[in-house]
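Researcher: I'd like a candidate sequence for this fold, 269 residues long. If you have to choose between options at a position, lean toward the conservative one.
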């Protein structure tokens, strides 16, 4: 086995096409974002090339080396990516929220059960695993089903905006709540709802964690063609041991091929 320290150019070209990092395939509409996420399985929202993961922003730019500008408000590409993010969120066909590693990302419905099996929190563990502020938010949303950020703060009596934001982030990572709309007038605010209200069938589906990790490893390899050492684990916030076990399972079934320690590619068979 040869030691692989960087991706071969043919793999980068595969990712250029798959991730829409080419001028000819860059995206401009919400429908194209949804098609991108369905094709990839999941991707980040507004991150640039420094994450080495697909994102809506990269696909809007249509180039491999896109970097976020210092003044994002005046940048045409970032503004479009932000607008598309809001539109896709409101359309509700694709899961959106701050998930693994607290990063805003999109997930295709078919992969929601796998994400939930890994990072989701069973209802009977909410009170013990979540802080009081997060449980207050859940109680209100289960009664009202949807509510804006400022009204949510009033109803829960959470003292500061920072505490409310922290609790909402924790609930998003546990796949309990999602933003369903972003309003800019009269003031900027998100409208929040329960993840189970927006994707009831997907959230209700029960899957073993080992199976879920293996299927995410499959989706990741399909979007990347080849993964370097630790790349999958870093991308989704898993331990290298758990990620490696999943990749080994894909090799055993013939889906993947092990090139060197921690390096896998889709099998040519």
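Model: Candidate sequence:
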């Amino acid at each position: 086995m040869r030691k692989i320290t960087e991706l071969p150019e043919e793999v980068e070209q595969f990712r250029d096409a798959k991730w829409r990092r080419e001028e000819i395939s860059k995206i401009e509409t919400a429908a194209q974002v949804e098609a991108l996420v369905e094709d990839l399985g999941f991707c980040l929202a507004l991150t640039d090339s420094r994450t080495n993961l697909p994102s809506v922003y990269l696909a809007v730019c249509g180039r491999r080396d896109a970097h976020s500008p210092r003044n994002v408000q005046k940048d045409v590409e970032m503004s479009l990516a932000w607008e598309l993010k809001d539109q896709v969120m409101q359309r509700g066909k694709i899961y959106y929220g701050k998930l693994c590693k607290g990063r805003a990302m999109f997930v295709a419905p078919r992969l929601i059960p796998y994400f939930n099996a890994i990072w989701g929190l069973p209802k009977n563990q909410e009170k013990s695993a979540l802080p009081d502020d997060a449980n207050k938010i859940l109680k209100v949303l289960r009664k009202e089903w949807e509510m804006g950020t400022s009204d949510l703060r009033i109803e829960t009596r959470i003292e500061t905006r920072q505490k409310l934001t922290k609790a909402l982030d924790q609930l998003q990572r546990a796949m309990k709540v999602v933003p369903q709309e972003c309003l800019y007038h009269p003031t900027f605010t998100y409208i929040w709802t329960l993840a189970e209200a927006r994707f009831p069938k997907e959230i209700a589906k029960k899957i073993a964690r080992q199976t879920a990790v293996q299927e995410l490893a499959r989706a990741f390899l399909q979007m990347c063609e080849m993964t370097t050492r630790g790349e999958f684990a870093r991308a989704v916030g898993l331990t290298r041991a758990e990620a490696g076990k999943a990749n080994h399972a894909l090799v055993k079934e013939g889906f993947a091929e092990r090139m060197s320690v921690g390096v896998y590619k889709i099998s040519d068979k």
